[in-house]
């Protein structure tokens, strides 16, 4: 099985180039069309559909309002090999036109990850299953008691 994950976006070419520069993935040229671009590796294909795809997919009325960020209802997590790779890539995202939403940090489940947004506003994570040497995983966050004033 292979996962194909697609983002609907105003400029598929620009978004493909952002992820290509960030992740170093090759373009899946066989998938290219006037409204579609994709990057691929052995395990997945990351596709970028232009806005006319909403109609082609029967998703009319679910487009984001013009001038607004897409809602976050799903996000991709790209698993990298080392904490240094996560930190280095997160450090480059701004220069590529993206945004760091949460800089690299230790998760309670023992991963080193960063939460980012691409230049067209889609949220995604970079993560690795290892913490940097000397960094301990934090305790599970406890919800704050909202009953006290």
UniProtKB/TrEMBL annotation:
It comes from the Bacteria. Residues 1-129 form the VOC domain. Pfam families: Glyoxalase_6. Residues 130-149 are annotated as: Disordered. InterPro entries: Glyas_Bleomycin-R_OHBP_Dase, Glyoxalase_6, VOC_core. This is Bleomycin resistance protein. It comes from Curvibacter microcysteis.
């Amino acid at each position: 099985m292979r996962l194909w994950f697609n983002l609907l976006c105003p400029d598929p070419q620009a978004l493909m180039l952002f992820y290509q520069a960030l992740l170093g993935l090759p373009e899946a040229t066989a998938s290219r069309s006037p409204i579609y671009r994709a990057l691929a590796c052995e395990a997945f294909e990351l596709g970028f559909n232009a806005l006319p795809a909403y109609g082609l997919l029967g998703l009319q009325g679910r487009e984001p309002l013009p001038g607004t960020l897409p809602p976050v209802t799903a996000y991709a997590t790209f698993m990298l090999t080392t904490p240094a790779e996560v930190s280095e890539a997160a450090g480059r995202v701004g220069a590529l036109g993206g945004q760091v939403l949460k800089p690299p940090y230790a998760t309670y489940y023992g991963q080193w990850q960063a939460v980012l947004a691409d230049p067209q506003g889609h949220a995604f994570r970079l993560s690795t299953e290892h913490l940097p040497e000397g960094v301990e995983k934090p305790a599970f966050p406890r919800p704050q008691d909202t009953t006290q004033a």
